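Meet our chain:
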Amino acid sequence: MPNVYGMDTSDFPGHAVLGWYWANCGFRYTGFYVAPAPRHPNQSWMSQRDELAAAGWGFLPVYVGLQINASGLSTANGAQHGNDAATLMTNAKFHAQTICYLDLEDGTEPSGNYAGYISAWVTALQSEGCVPGIYCSHHRRLVPTASKPRGKRRAKKPGGTKSA
């Protein structure tokens, strides 16, 4: 399968910019921020799906919920934010069973209230007919492997090479 390239930018950059990326970089996918979300109030992507889909773009819908060490991390908020994400996916005209990614800016292993928040978000999203995914830091693993000692972990890039 050939590589398919894409981009991710928090604010909608405009159709002209995306057209340039399409023509000059071969990008065919873009992050699509469903909003308002707790850590992403900007709704600039929300009305763009139909026009971008008609132009051939694929999407990686992203919901930026609470982050590690944020106040308000709880299973109740995770469930509410998961339900909100599902509603936003519908409002942006994504089809049922579309993956919605919870953006985790810190890729360390979740524990405590943070793990509870993530788990509740996943469960709530599933109950609304969406498929949950996790979008996190590329240089850390979300779940450690048993064969590696705890401490600094190195994630494998596609093709088996390691990143720092």
